[in-house]
């Protein structure tokens, strides 16, 4: 048993993002479980009575659309997926509408793409809209706008969408409801002796290597995306819970402080809001590979990235675009906003700052990425 006092920990929560997976909302045949929608509404009603604001991130549109249209196989082309999701979204929201109407609670549909988070103006508008809905005591139900999403603006899975919404709304807690009890040392469906992990103090490299766990015809990502999601929330200073939403009173049990699900504590080295936005809200337009010295300077000393430490440039990013910094093994170390274009960085890579103006004929800055625009996302090589 863990000695951590969960009841006390959850007593101060005022705003929560709850992500519900499609496996929680559907039966084995792909039918929407109306009883499950009712259970979720009842538990959220209890939270509302305690003045806790709730934002739902809900999967289930594709599962619902497949069942409605009689589709037995997962669509492979993007346009068919979008059509199925558009059809299923109607049924999904209607199920929530009926469930919450029993408690005289209105719901609102919010469909987002990555642009809603990466573009600062849209980010602020989305935040204000959701906040106004909460002030009006309306439950926002968020999903990715699959109908118009293309690769450049696609989030890809609702686990990571939940983390982005947590940052967007400045929530105090994120809950991911799925079809397994939480994080295990290995995939419990492949190894019956896998150890359940009740409490995660830090999402380190060992935790990030864990995969498997959530599978199904209409599920995406599995445990990998859930761990990515809780890491993002953790670095923003927000705790998370991964729990089994198929079990009775799952949400209520979490708030009662029961040892239910895996609790992931917020990072002690949380990123400031701007750096969190850079690291997780912006779409990367390119990649650069760093030598060992440059990687160490970023990770251990909080330094800016100079051209001398760059070994390789990938992509066609422009000035002001977000780029990924990799070490020589391909491990992601950081993300940042580039001061120069990809073409310019290729020309000055490996060179001293004193040579920039001679090579380019001008110089914007000594740094390719200034430390204020650089967000570390890996603890690799740290002491």
Describe the structure.
The chain is α/β, with parallel strands linked by helices and 383 residues long. The chain has 2 domains: 6-274, 3-Layer(aba) Sandwich (Carbamate kinase), CATH 3.40.1160; 283-376, Archaeosine Trna-guanine Transglycosylase, Chain: A, domain 4. Helix content is 38%, strand content 19%. It has 15 helices and 15 strands. The protein has helices at residues 6-10, 22-25, 34-49, 61-69, 78-101, 115-118, 120-135, 158-169, 205-208, 222-235, 250-255, 273-280, 292-301, 342-348, 356-360, and strands at residues 15-20, 53-58, 107-112, 139-144, 173-178, 183-184, 196-197, 199-200, 240-244, 262-264, 284-290, 310-315, 322-326, 332-337, 374-376. It has an 8-stranded mixed beta sheet with strand order 3-4-2-1-5-9-10-8, with helices on both faces. Strands 12-11-13-14-15 form a 5-stranded mixed beta sheet, with helices on both faces. A two-stranded antiparallel sheet has the order 6-7. It is globular, with a radius of gyration of 22 Å. The mean pLDDT is 87.
List descriptors.
eight-stranded mixed sheet, 2 domains, 19% strand, globular, five-stranded mixed sheet, single chain, 383 residues, 38% helix, alpha/beta, Archaeosine Trna-guanine Transglycosylase, Chain: A, domain 4, 15 strands, 15 helices, Carbamate kinase
